[in-house]
């Protein structure tokens, strides 16, 4: 999840975000600046951090389909298959909170 998405999800009065980092400013529908509660944003980001980490480490879909094909051919559509091992290793590395 991106920081801007977390702000929108945790601060329902925010309609516009301008800038990033130290230059980031949030505004309501009347263009009044909104103060952001950083603890809420951080908590929202941490809820999906494992998903972001997993996504960057999973094999590509092409690689996963190739593993599945070979597992099917070798009658290994169970926990001994290469696809399962590849996906499980990432899931184990980044468990759901």
Q: Can you walk me through this structure?
A:
The protein has about 100 residues and is mostly helical. The protein has 2 domains: about 1-45, no CATH class; about 55-95, no CATH class. Helices cover about 55% and strands about 10% of the residues. It is built from 5 helices and 3 strands; from the N terminus they run αβββαααα. The longest helix is centred in the last third of the chain and has 13 residues, at about 60-75. It is elongated and about 65 Å long. The relative contact order is 0.12. The mean pLDDT is about 95.
Question: What secondary-structure arrangement, pairings included, does this model have?
Answer:
Elements: H1 3-10, E1 16-18, E2 25-27, E3 33-34, H2 38-47, H3 49-57, H4 61-73, H5 82-93
Antiparallel strand pairs: 1-2, 2-3
Query: Which range does the strand content fall in?
Result: 5-15%
Would you list the SSEs in sequence order as H and E?
Answer: HEEEHHHH
* End-to-end separation: 15 Å
Tally of individual helices: 5
What is the residue-mean pLDDT, rounded to a whole number?
96
Low-pLDDT segments, ≥5 res: none
- What is the number of strand segments? 3
* Strand order, sheet with most strands: 1-2-3
Query: What does the main sheet amount to?
Result: 3 strands, antiparallel
Gross geometry: elongated
Percent of residues in helices comes to 40-55%
- Class by SSE composition: mainly alpha
Radius of gyration: 20 Å
Summed up, the domain count is: 2
């Amino acid at each position: 999840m991106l920081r801007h998405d977390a702000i929108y999800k945790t601060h329902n009065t925010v309609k516009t975000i301008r800038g990033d980092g130290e230059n980031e400013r949030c505004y309501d529908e009347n263009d009044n600046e909104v103060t952001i509660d950083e603890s809420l944003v951080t908590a929202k980001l941490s809820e999906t951090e494992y998903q972001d980490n997993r996504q960057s480490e999973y094999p590509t879909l092409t690689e996963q389909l190739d593993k599945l094909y070979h597992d099917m051919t070798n009658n290994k559509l169970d926990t001994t298959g290469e696809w399962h091992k590849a996906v499980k290793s990432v899931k184990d590395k980044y468990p759901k909170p």
